[in-house]
Design brief:
10 strands, alpha/beta, single chain, 4-stranded antiparallel beta sheet, 6-stranded mixed beta sheet
Length: about 250
């Protein structure tokens, strides 16, 4: 039996008088991986940032874990302990070691004892094959290593939902594989995920469902294989063709 984790109803967002998201409706169930696809400028990043309170919305409702979200700063601050997000730009603190970057939120936000946070951080670094980098600074890491550290940092808060916004977009091609492999492992471990990506092979392999965003509206919400086998709109067909030609 499916159990909804996130319910989005009639979500709307505008910048001034310019609509960016219009009548967005979808549900994400626990353990589900949803890929959010669409051409550049379609509203994907705006939508995923709205789901984490980084962008305000002007209409509609969000319900997380059965509770309607009151979109106040205090509410979002609390929810970010349960909704992790990883960005394209890593956002690691350059003056802190890898280990200190990982421990910061568990200690400062979740008020974990330092010893407990350090044990959890080192365990995750070992799991990700990054234990040797614990005492290094971000400047000494490759882009792929930084992105895996950013994912580990988000996971240490034990989120119920993970949001990924084009996390491989700034990586060299040889670094993309390691990050996508890590995300694939998370999906296989039943991590609930919404992923904005231009990696079509990854989306087809890992996603349970595809949401296709076109000019701020969801024009397809369907199983991944069905979307890739028979894209339902001309815009979706053109998008997939353009991605294949890259």
């Amino acid at each position: 039996m499916t159990e909804p984790l996130l319910i989005v109803n009639h979500l709307a967002k505008a910048y001034g008088q310019t609509p960016v998201l219009e009548d967005i409706n979808f549900t994400v169930n626990k353990g589900e991986v949803v890929a959010l696809l669409g051409r550049s400028g379609s509203g994907k990043s705006t939508l995923i940032r709205t789901l984490n309170g980084l962008e305000p919305f002007q209409g509609g409702t969000l319900t997380f874990a059965g509770q309607a979200i009151d979109p106040t700063p205090a509410t979002w601050l609390a929810l970010r302990r349960r909704i992790g997000m990883v960005f394209q730009s890593y956002d690691l603190f350059p003056n802190l070691t890898v280990l200190a970057n990982l421990m910061l939120a568990p200690v400062q936000v979740a008020h974990q004892p330092k010893a407990q946070a350090e044990t959890a951080a080192r365990t995750l670094l070992t799991r990700f094959g990054l234990a040797e980098f614990a005492d290094r600074y971000p400047s000494a890491l490759s882009g792929g290593q930084k992105q895996r550290i950013a994912i580990a940092r988000a996971l240490l808060m034990k989120p119920a939902l993970m949001l990924f916004d084009e996390v491989t977009a700034s990586l060299d091609p040889e670094m993309v594989h390691g990050v996508l492999a890590l995300m694939t492992d998370l999906a296989r471990a039943d991590m609930t995920m919404i992923v904005v990506t231009h990696e079509m092979g990854f989306a087809r392999k890992v996603a349970d469902r595809i949401l296709f965003l076109d000019d701020g509206r969801i024009t397809a919400d369907m199983p991944a294989e069905a979307f890739f086998t028979a894209p339902p709109t001309e815009s979706a067909r053109n998008f997939l063709a353009s991605m294949t030609d890259r």
